[in-house]
Amino acid sequence: MNENKNQHELNVCLDECLLYIHSFLKGKKTVVKTLQIGLADGKLANTIVNATQKPHIVVDPRQEMHQFSGIKFLKAEDNWDLIDFRDDNSYAVLPKLLEGNILPEFIVIDGDLRFDAMLTDFFNVDLILKKNCFVLIRKNELESTRLVHQFIQTNRQEYTIVKELNQYILYQKEARDIRKMDFFEPFYL
């Protein structure tokens, strides 16, 4: 009984998050290109595509671990045609997007949740994002995700929090990185 209640609360939080993201993207007519690292069950990608009605790049080499549930969901929702699916690791795909001058205005980091992988994704996303663009980063009970957010909030002053949701934090990049080469502020205390 308690497990069902916890799952229900999680679903309500996720639904509220998806509703916010849908509304946010509908209101941002300047968001034309979108990118998502990690597909999982496909609900977030579906929300993004429904809001923008534009092609959406998805990077996820691990859909097989999820029994292809995200792909199946997007096909069932009739949105697969708007998905540019990259079955590869984000550390390989993101530099290619930058090299090809494919610069999304809204990016989701929700793939590999290990600290070093998330920080590498953030580093590459930062190179891609232009001023006034957005990054939505997974937030959960894992220490790794908490530390990535602490790093950003402590060391990357050009990123401001737009909205903190139950499962994600939405940041806006307001300037380019102008830190000195030796700048570092401890964030893991």
What would you say about this model in short?
With 189 residues, the protein is α/β, with parallel strands linked by helices. It is built from six helices and seven strands; from the N terminus they run H-E-H-E-H-E-H-E-H-E-H-E-E. Helix content is 42%, strand content 17%.
Plain-language structure description:
The chain has 189 residues and is α/β, with parallel strands linked by helices. The chain is built from six helices and seven strands. The protein has helices at 2-26, 43-52, 69-76, 90-99, 115-128, 143-155, and strands at 34-37, 56-59, 83-86, 106-109, 134-138, 159-164, 168-173. Strands 3-2-1-4-5-7-6 form a seven-stranded mixed β-sheet, sandwiched between helices.
Work out the radius of gyration: 16 Å
Which structural class do the helices and strands define? Answer: alpha/beta
Number of separate strands: 7
Low-confidence segments, given as residue ranges, are none
| Coarse shape | globular
How many distinct helices?
A: 6
The percent of residues in helical segments reads 40-55%
Q: For the report, how would you describe the main beta sheet?
A: 7 strands, mixed
SSE run: HEHEHEHEHEHEE
Mean pLDDT across residues: 93
How far is the first residue's CA from the last residue's CA?
A: 37 Å
The portion of residues forming beta strands comes to 15-25%
The strands making up the biggest β-sheet line up spatially as: 3-2-1-4-5-7-6
